[in-house]
Structures are given as structure tokens and as C-alpha cells.
Amino acid sequence: MSNLNRLIDYFIVSGLSTDSGLEPDQLSVPTPWVMAHFRNPPFTGDSLHCPPLDRPYKPHVLSHFPVSRSENPLDKNAVGMLCHPRALRFQTQQEPRDPAFHSFIITKENGSRVFGAALTYYEVVCEAQICKAMQTLQSMHMAELSNTQSRTLYSHLTENSTEVHQRSPLVVKKKQRTFSIEKDTLYATKCMCILSQIPLIRTFERILVFLYNAIMSTDQPDLPFESHIFNLIFEVPMPPLGGSVAFTVMGNRIIGQRPGSMELPLLDYPLHQMLLLLNIDKLLLVFSSILLEHQVIFYSKDYLKLMLVSEGLTALLFPFRWQHVYVPILPTSVSHFLDAPVPFIMGLHHGMDSQALQDVCANANICFVDIDTGNVDVPDDLPVFPYADKLRSDVEHELRRSNAQESVANGGNQRDSGFRESLLIDDSGVSSAIPGRLELIQNNEALAKITALAQRTGVISSLDDLKDSLGAAGDAAAGPPPIKPPAPPKSPPDQHVTDLIFNSAIREIFLHYFLQIFRSYESFVINSSPDLDTWLSNRETMQNFDRAAFLSDHSESHLPFLSAFIETQMFTTFIDNKIIAQWEEVDSNLRVFEDRLQSFREVQEQRIRRFYRTHLLSTTLSPAHTECAIEKRANKADLVAPPPKYSGEKPKPFTDRAKHRPGVFPELNTSILDKEPPSKVKRDINKWRKKGRVMQQVENLQMEAEQREKSLQEARAKSGGPSLTMNPAGAAQTNWKFVESLLKECKAKTKRMLVEKMGQEAVELGHGEAVITGVEENTLIASLCDLLERIWSHGRHQVQGKSALWSHLLSYQETYHRVLWNLQLTPHLPVALGLPRKPSRTPEIPILNPLPSSLLFDLKNVQQMSEIKTEVGYTRAFVRLALEKKLLSKHLKQLLSNPDLLRSLYKSYGFLRCEDEREQFLYHLLSLNAVDYYCYTNAFSKTVIGYQVLIFTQKKMSGGGTSANCWLSMSGSLGETKRIPIPKHTMEMNLQNKNLGVLTTMRVGHDNAGMSPKWMVEHILVRNEITGHAYRFPCGRPLGKGVDDGALERLLVAEMVPPTTDHAELLEKCRTPPRCRSPSMPRRSTEPKLQVSDIQEMLGDAVNNLVKHFYKPEKERGSLTSLLCGEYGLVFCMEHVFQCGFKSSRFLRNRFFVWDFLEKVSNYFHTLITDHEHYTIAKNVESTMKSYCHVVNRINSASEAIGKDGRFQIFICIGVRERYLQRWLRILSKIPITSNMYEEQSFLRDPALSQFVTEILGSLKDFNIVLEASLIKGITL
């Protein structure tokens, strides 16, 4: 048998070497990193102040079989360190000596892993020189302690020990451990270890337990140990993929199984136990930290728990792999690795101070997981994993289902809710080294005295009686009693199979959500290299994944996580493997993922319904199929290894050389174990291979009809054999069903998008259902894009490119290129930022040429998007742009209007060649014009957009021209521009800037230079040259010192122009003087004076609109700035509140600005606050006055260019945001200045009106109002 086909690579025995003696383990001495971070280092080396039994000693590999394997050389130092993570330890007969099992991983330089399983137990030390050496060390230690000076030097050790005992309730203070060669028997740790290429941990544990039981047994074994070891390392084959192997150890049958090539990779650790240690919420936090490649530290007193959680979480990453440092068990000697500035997963033993380590990790922003206590600290601002709530619900459902099934199987006894002292004690009977109740009694001084008293009075005869009584009591909290020796496992295969089935179900859940997230990832993979060498040489300089297009397909709530995840090394490696698969063998994880992804898509296509929510397991591998495969492999082995037998003609040499001594590992005959097996085993391999082919045939027969046919077609294609073809009638029927399903799905998707966009209104009209509420717009649009791709892919003559729709668009563009060049392309190329186009002959009348609405114009704009790298990305950008412009149905109709092009691209049965279905399809898309989408504007933040700006000024009284240097800046939902200079005598300019999103505000101003700086702006019109959205910014106020309120700059609030507005009508509206000025009400004598009731109604509507804004879902909210500062907004209404009842005939000669009144009040408040001799003010009133004065002073000192009305606008916005406004109004109604300047029937003096204003403003105090930066000019309080 080939070495690569053997189950076990090495069988190793390690422990105390009689040649080296008691050699201190210098690697376990605290490193400088540990000394720097912890007050109480876990190990103390060979110092004389430490008792000899507590010191760590260096372990050695005593023997290993075979001696060497060229393909897998043995690293003795690494194996010795990992077999004895706490170094070599000694015990006496008075102390517990329970065996402990743990596993580990060795990562080689090439990245491959070797999996180890180790069982450690205590073996009596028979060598007299070792016992004498221990006695000598004990005497030296006692002499050191008797030294007064030494007690002074080491007094802190006792204090530290006391602190540790007080801090940890699990540690019982005990007397110092001593050794006497006359009274005590010395035991040392010995370890049996198995190394293998596959992690069959449960199988290896059972092997080691059976060997351990044979060692501890008083009965002479039927066969010598060499026979069993020889059989394990030479005659037991590795289980085939998708099969199992059966073999015998000490008369016990063991079956080890391995998943198939299209199943999830092997995981032999029970995830059920991991979920008992960490609940699903904490597990998802750690899972997210690992996915985003943070530094992760696991901390536990049990090495097996460290391996369980590390291996369990990394297995859930499938199809991705952890690419960085991975050390589930970190030896103390290399603890300085924790300072490494790279991502890592490391497991630390409980020897270190938990709180100190947790503090270190918190300061370093590391994910720290205390497995024993369940405490989890994650890095700050950790984004939430997509679909976290659904994932949590599915895992909890599977947990309940698993517990219910096991409860029925066990007659009502559910799975133990606590983590056993040994993870696999139910299979092996081996407990870990955690103190049990008997150990606590033996090591506790007070209880020891009570036990001695009970022995003298005859209550018990020995500690064994007490052990039996404790076992009968069954105290669940303390765990099972120590087992010496462990009993044979009770039905281990049943529990093992249950755990494997549960593991598969949980991993399928996590895989399902990865399929959901990356269902169309292939479309965004970029590869233009002709061969592997070219790709490798350009790998560092080329982009392999279209990130912008991929993120535009996902929900906004998922973007924080996904944008970080696609930058990780594990995702980059996954994409690299996808590209390399074109030239080399496909990565195993990628192959399984691609197969599941194909099934996922097929199930989605087959399950088209009106409105549906795909259940978790409907798109994953059937759990029944996986469960049956696992149970089948466990019940019937595909390979059966020969049983152990004598390795020669005469068994006598074994009996003569090694007599069986219970508790002592026998001395083995190395010459026999180094021999290769007989050659006839090779003939058995052919039998196993033949059996494997039979298994593949049986597996094909168990597939569903479609899957079996697909598998057979692929096999025939690879072998060059004939393939089955469908008859013409059957093909026509199949194509017709597919066309019908596509049309039905189109109807369902468009209706769903309409209902979701209309929101609550659609639900009230009876068009909505609970199952579709809350679906993100990006997800629905991505689903629509996938549908369009499938429609355009149906019936194509030949595949060209990754996007069928994009290929059709390019063919259409190529066909009509001359028409596009001569007729459709009117020059709309924006010039450099801030520079105008060629001035018009009549600059007094700005001209807004209509944008072309043709398919080719939008196609050209999409092709100019530099951040898009893939054909699928361009297609989705085109669909989003057309959908936002309400031209999707029109563009696609135009695309399909060329029958010659359709015939050249598609077969007669293709969907696009079916006229009736095509018309219905376009009709369904036309229904999307009923709602407004901003899916292009909000998705591509880095796209450079052209903006055309038209400025309408007042021509009367020469108010349109100015000698000053003018400027403007625009703000939107995605960003803002810097100040853009406006060339003099220019009414029209074209700007080019990164996408600002939906425009919200514009700030316009000048520097007041020249002889006639006054500038009267009526309106400013801005149009997005790609989407065609037009925004009107009304002003109606002059700018200049000494004019109006003296403003040199004004904030203008955007008004979205309806898309149905005719361009001529729009220009006419902009030439007409505006109804209102910005930001306050016009003073036109022709307008009627508002009554008090009118102002009350307007204010109530303004506040009500704000309340509705915050009660809407975030995706349905409009512009908050418009509700605050726009027409009939809160600022507009509050200005009328302050102007109502003003005694204008007595002050300021009819030139009243509210800000003048507010400044007078501020001066008055300042006098009251500073003059404590004449005025006494309540603390709450004084606090309100100080806040008022502080805000007024900050606004006045912000910028002199802001006019009085602009300052009043900022005053109201800050007052509402900080919840000051209603408090200010209560004080304003009681001061003398208000009485002097306002009539009694005003809002500031009339108690009823004043109470009305304060109460209605109080309804806004519960909302978090966030103001745009352009609105408050950077003013901070």
C-alpha cells in the first residue's frame, strides 16, 4: 500500500527520557512578552523556589513508527511540544492521574497541514536515578525555602498565588506538593500520538483509548502491541472519498468515514458542543471577525475546546479558507507572536491571567474569546454579517430539531446542556485534567481532615468508598468522576453519526447564505489574460474583481460588511482560484461551491411563484441525502482492513522481550515495525478501486433524474462517447415551458418592485403582503438584472462574452454606428471644472437643450464609466440608468426593433423571437415607470457626472449684472463640491464632478468687489447630464453689502423638477420671479397678510411633515433639508411666527429683520447673567439664557458673508436639533424687550399662542435631527 493511501502516517510515543533525566524545559520559562504583559507568569522554569513537582520538564519523543516517510518527514521538536503543551509533568500516588485527550495541527512551510491526536496519561517512574534526582531537587527546594533571605525575595510569589486563588473560584488552595522517595511513588506523563493527513479525530481518539485500556488492563493481551501498531500504520487504508473503512483495534471494531468529493470537507469536531460553549449571537460576532480577518484569540483551560472552536469556526468559512497565521494551540515559548501585526487565529491555555490578557486584547482591538466563561470582546465598529437575523433563526431551529430528535431516540433524555469535562467522553471514556470532586477533596486540607476522621470512626474505609458514593450521587454541576481506567465507549458510532449529521446541517445553513450573497459573483470576475503565465506575471497590477458593480447589487445595509470582506485575503484567494481553474485543476472548495451554486440557481428558476420566500433548505443539498450518506457509510464499510496478526512465524520473541505490566507502555520491537507489509496488499488495492467504481455507479442511481442525466452527459462528453438528444416535439415543449416561466417571473418581479417601492400605500390598496415588506431596493433590482440576463441568454446562436444583454447592446451599437455618429450625438461634453462652454450669442437668455432620450446616448454614457470593469457590471449600470430615467421598456423595445439583428443572434425558439411574449414582457417593464427610482444616482458614487448650470438673474434696474467675483457650491446625498467660480457675464456653465447623488442645497455668493457688486438672482437651474434630473434653486433675493439683509452668500434649497415638465415650460417658470425668496418670505405689497390661524395651520403642517419623515422607513424618507428650509418648511413658518404682531411703526422704519430682535435679546440675557448684584436668576433659566447667547455668538462669529435671514435660518435649525427652541420661546415671552417690540396678540406675548408653539415644537424632541454640513456652515457648539 502506498504511503499516501495509509490512514496513519506515524504512531509516536513521547514522555520522560531516562538518558536525559530531569531536564528543565527552558521553552516554558516566561518570555519577555509574557513578563511585560502579566504580573503572574504561568511558568517559573527551574528556579529553586518552585517545588520540583510543579516545574516543567522537557519531554522527548521516545519512539515513532515508521522511522521515516520521505513525503512526510517528522518534526520531533514540534510533535514533542504539541503532545505536551504544558511540558512534562510529575505526580505522586496521592494526586489524580486521569488521562486526557487533545488534538492539534502542524502547519508546514508549504501550507499543508498534518493532524495530530494525543492521549496523555501518567506512568509510574521505575528508574531509581530519576527518583533520586527528584528527591535531590526536593531537598534543595526545602533548603531554599528555609533561607530567610530567600523568603523575603520570593514573598511576592505567595501573595500572587493568593490573588490567583481569590480571583478564580475554580482553583482550590492546597498544600505545597512534596516528594519523598521513601513514602511516595513517582509518576510522569507519557503520551501516545497519531499523525495523519486527514482529521479523523473521533476515530483516532477511539484507537488511542482502546490502546490505553489494554495498557492499563491486568490481563495479558492476545496479541503483542507490535501487531496492533503494525496493523494500524501499514494495513489500515485511508477511507476513499465518499466511503468508509473498517478495522479492528484490541478486538474492537472501528469505522472511519470520509465525505465525498462533492460534499462539504471533513469536520470531525461536534459543532453542537461549540454552540453550547458560545451562543449563536456571540458565535456570529466571532465569525464576522474571522471573515474580516481580524486578530482572534481563543482562551480556555481545555486544549480540546481550543481545537473545537478554532476548527469549527474555520469550517463554517466554507468555501473560503483562512489564509493567515493559524495556531489553535499556542505554546508559551512563542507567546510573543501575539504582537505580530498580521491577522491570526491563536489559542491560549488557561495558564495566563484571563483578565490581564483580556485587557491587553481590548487595548489592541483584538477579538478575544474566553471559551470557558463565554465572554466575547470584538473589535470596535464591527459590521454585521448579512442576513444575520435569518441565519440566527435557522441555526436555532436546527438546534431545536436536533434536540427533539435526540430526545425521542433517548426516550426523553435530551442532549446534555453542559460541556463535558472531556469533549468526547461519551465516546472514549477519557476525561480531561479538570479537577473533579474527588480531586478537590484530596487537595483540600479541611476536607482531608474530615475524611481521616470518617475513616477512624468506620464511616468509610478508604477514599475509594467516598469516590463510589460521589459517583452514585450524580452531581451534574461537578461533572463525571475521574475514570481509572476509562470504561469502553458506549455505542460511540451512534453519537458520532448524530454529530456528523448535525455538523452537516449547520454547515449547510452557513453555506446557503454564502450562496445567497455570491449567487452572481462569476459575472464580476475580471480576466483578460490568455494563459496562466501571463496572468501570474501581471497579477499584482491588475484588478480581478469588479467591486463597484458587485456592491451595487446588494442591500445598503449589507455594504459595510461586504465592502470590507471583498478586500480580504481569503476572498482574493477565492477569486484567484476561480481564474486559475481555467488552466489548472479546480480547487476542491471551489468545485463544491460551484456545484451548489448551480443547484441553487436551478431551484430558484423552478420555484417561480407570485410572491415567495425561499426556505433555507430548498436551495441547498437535501439534508435527507446527506444524512443517508453518513448513516450508510457508518453502517456498511466500503473497505475492510485485515485484522491484526502476528508479524512472523514465531510469537515467542514478543513474549520474551516484553512482559505485560499494567500501566506501563511495553517496549516495542522496532525492527518488526520498520518492515514494509507483504506485497499481496497491493492486489487488495485493485479490489478496493473496483469497489470504488461500483460505489460511484450506486451513487448515480440514487440521484434524481435530472441530476443523473446531467452527470451522464458530462461523463460522455469527457469520454468522447455519444450523447442523448431530445426529439423535436419534446424540445419545443420544453422551450415553451421555459418561455412561459420567464414571462411569469417577469410579471411577479415587476409587481413586487412596484409594491415595495409604493410601500404602505400599496399595502393599503391590497397589493402588498407581509412576506415582502422590508426587501431592499438594490436586491430587487439585482434580481431584475438576473432575469434580464436569463431572458437574453435563451436561444442564442453562440455565446459571446459573459453578458448576453451587453453583447446585444454592442451589436446594436455597431450596426447603427453611423447613425449614432451623425444624428444622435449632439456635443454634450462638459468642460473642465468651473470653465464655461462657449458663450451664447444672447447671454441674457440661458438655453437648456433637451437631452437625447435614445438608447445609444445612454449606452455611450455607461461605456464611459471608468470604475466598471466587467460586461455584467456595464449591463447592470445600463439597466439602472434606464430604470431611473423611466426608459427601460423603451430602450429594450428599441433594441429589439431590428429583426435582422435578432435573427442573427437568436434561434427561432428564443424568448426574444416570440413576439407575443416579448410584447407582454415589455408591457410589464413599462409598469415600472409608475414609481421613481434613483438606483443609478445612489449606486455609483465614483462616477464622474456632468452638470449643466443655468443662472436666471433679474434684468430690471440692472440687477442682473455684477462687478463682483461670483461662485457657487452644490451639495447632495453623496457629497459636495468646493467653491466653483462663475465667470463674469456668464449665465450658463458646465461642470464635471464626482456623483453628488440627489442634489439638496446650493450655496451661492460673491466677494462684493467692484463698483456695482449688487447681484439679483431669481433662480438657478441644474441638470444632471446623464440621468436628466433637473433641480430648481429659487432665490429671489439680492446679494451685496448694504442691500436687503446684507448677505454676500445665500443657501438655496433644491426643488426636484418633475420629469414630465416640458423644457420650455421649465425655462418659462425660471424666467418668472419666484413666489418666495430664500430663505424667508417675500415682502410684496400685492400679497395678502397672513392671519394667526393661517400661521398656526402652516406651522402644524410643517411639524407634522417632519414627524412623518422620521416615522417612515429610512429608504422612503425624502430630504430633511427641504422640510426644514424649503418652501413652507419649518424655518419659513417660524419666521412668520416672529413677524406676527411686530410693532413695525415704532422701530427700524419698517425694515425689520428677526435677527435684529434676537441679537437684542442676546445682549439683554448677557447683562442679566453677568450682573449678579442686581439680578437673581434660577439655575434652569440661567442655563437656557447661556445656551441662547452661546448659539447667537457662534452664528455671528461664523462668517460675515451670511445675511441676517441666513443667520436666523441657522438659529432655528440648531435650536431644533439641540432641542433648545421651545425652551428659548418660553423665556422670550416673559422679557421686557418682547413687550416693547410686539403687540399683545402675537405669538410671543399671547399665552395661548405661545403655549401652542412650544407644545407643537416639543413633538420633535424625540427625533435625532442630523443637519447637512452646508446648512450650518461648519458651526459647532
Automatic annotation (TrEMBL):
Basic and acidic residues bias spans: 647-657, 705-717
Similarity comment: family membership: Belongs to the RAB6IP1 family.
Compositional bias (Polar residues): 404-415
Lineage, highest ranks first: Eukaryota, Metazoa, Spiralia, Lophotrochozoa, Annelida
Bias kind Pro residues: ranges: 479-492
Chain ranges of the UDENN domain: 41-585
Coiled-coil ranges from the UniProt annotation: none
Keywords: Membrane, Repeat
Domain PLAT: 945-1053
Organism whose genome encodes this protein: Capitella teleta
Intracellular or extracellular location(s): Membrane
GO cellular component: membrane
Name listed for the protein in its UniProt record: UDENN domain-containing protein
Stored CDD domains: RUN1_DENND5, RUN2_DENND5
Region Disordered: start-end pairs: 396-415, 471-494, 639-661, 704-729
Domain RUN stretches: 775-941, 1121-1272
GO molecular function: guanyl-nucleotide exchange factor activity; small GTPase binding
